[in-house]
Fold these 2 entries.
Entry 1:
Amino acid sequence: ETHSLEERFQAYVDAENKVEPKDWMPEKYRKTLIRQISQHAHSEVVGMLPEANWITRAPSLRSKLILLAKVQDEAGHGLYLYSAAETLGADREDMIKDLLSGKAKYSSIFNYPTISWADMGAIGWLVDGAAIANQVMLCRTSYGPYARAMVRICKEESFHQRQGYEIMMQLARGSEEQKAMAQDALNRWWWPSIMMFGPRDEDSPNSAQSMKWKIKRKSNDELRQEFIDKTVPQAEFIGLTIPDPDLKWNEEKGQYDYGEINWEEFYQVIKGNGPCNAQRLAARQKAYDDGKWIREAANAYAEKESKRKAE
Ligand code: FAQ
């Protein structure tokens, strides 16, 4: 056999096999997955903050219960994802330190403020909608533990998307003021939501290799297009206007053409200069510091237990 390990790995992935934690894999495959999965985990956990801002001010008991359940689901998603990254040999403590130091990224979208109740609608509808488009593809990613985590996460995200759309629909069908709130939230969240898919394909340094290894199965631009095509009719249905004057149906292509994204804003936000970056990291740092005593207690207990068992 003259094939190298790398070639055999590629052939294995090309044949649609799943890579499992103990299988041989190229070091760069492992590193790419740790990067992506840990950043995905951080996004889920940081992503709890913008919505947590409204739990105490939800307009009814029902909406409060639903929002609470959704935010709790996001904590769960973060936990599955940190565990998936651990199967690749990543250390949880290191991942958290990289988040807090600003070395690891998390989704740009969570650096925008939530200034009205309508933002809870816009986040569920648009942000979870974008997350689903991306994650449905990731259910078929080549790394087994990540793919399996995505299946459950997608089911929960569909519930989140519907709860957000329901809030938007209620507001859009309410008083003039409520309708204006919904439109304002759509105006503020639309562009950041379509930035979530990442840079244009030609400016995406990781895409080519990740597509080859079947970590990613659709490109950033393909997913962005799918999301736009699915979402525009939903906005029309509830009588809201997408804030993009260049948006129009392209009969020939069978999809929407859309306006230029403000890439300068995107890169500023991922560099740490978005409206809420500092606030989000400060909140995570505080949670980390406040949790120190419980981590210490859990470790001391685990040590005591293992000593007791060894005796
Ligand atoms: N924000 O070469 P590419 C959720 C970075 S959903 C920040 O294209 P790649 C659910 C990228 O990391 C959100 N950074 O990179 C929820 C790379 O930098 P690096 C989370 C971004 O990896 C809903 C550089 O730009 N979902 O949390 C962004 O091939 C509601 C170059 O980009 C996931 O993470 C961005 N938007 O493709 C929770 C999905 N876009 O790492 C609460 C999994 C790009 O080299 C409430 N991730 N960058 O320093 C992925 O599918 C991919 O990583 C992409 C980026 C598509 C995000």
Entry 2:
Amino acid sequence: MTKRLEGKVAVITGGSSGIGLATAKRFVADGVTTVFITGRRQDQLDKAVAEIGGNAIGVQADVSKVEDIKKLFLTVKKTTGSIDILFCNAGIGENAVLGEISEDLFDRIFSINVKGIIFTVQEFIPLLSKGGSIILTSSITSGKGLRANSVYAATKAAIRSLARTWTAEFKARATTDHGEVPLGEADHDKVIRVNVVSPGPIETPMLLNGLSTEIRNVIKSHVPLGRLAQPSEISSIVSFLASDESSFIAGADVQADGGLTQI
Ligand code: NAD
């Protein structure tokens, strides 16, 4: 049986740990030809590449710097010529209550979580020339009030908005570069789909660093399924959204939160 990502090329930002790393492993298991992973530290990328196996390539790039994104683009272009999957997953979170939000904190979080995604997608569009799937990592905090979380939550809400806007934009530019002409039947397989995955609490370094057992148990107690999730429970969704099995899903936000936002 053919694997669902057989023959595809993928780029994952923030691929050296947590959800990004789990997704790189899942992509390889699902048959990608090549998966590029990015992160800021080469040593962590090397470790991740060894762990992923298959055709994983680590490229150092800080997504908050457009110059780094352009270099990443050139490396990918030179190596594979085109891509099929772009998973914009790199992100950071820092807590600050209103009254304690510094300009530095604001700039740091927005430049990675929002600017990083906008410029990565903008830069990589030419490499999605055959069409493809873009997946953006948001968070359930984008739609749920949580103390000390306003800046992070605002970035994650922006990401959901980007997916909707780009879904509208890609409608017109989905295929031949001939401008905004009605799409012919032959062009439908060249469409670019953009979707969002919104995780709840996932056991990754981002969530667990500095988290006491007590707080961890408090979080668990709010989740109807009674536990935190593993990164692999997000990567399975990303793989589905990346594949042709989700061919009619566009502009959607898939929440995986154990029911947390539903009660
Ligand atoms: P993580 O800290 O394990 O992974 C974050 C990744 O992003 C790392 O690989 C890191 O190197 C990379 N990164 C950070 N800044 C970067 C930059 N400037 N340039 C390039 N790469 C950068 O955490 P994670 O939980 O796997 O986070 C992945 C995504 O999931 C983030 O966008 C995060 O906001 C989101 N998320 C996580 C949770 C959770 O509970 N863990 C919940 C909701 C959303």
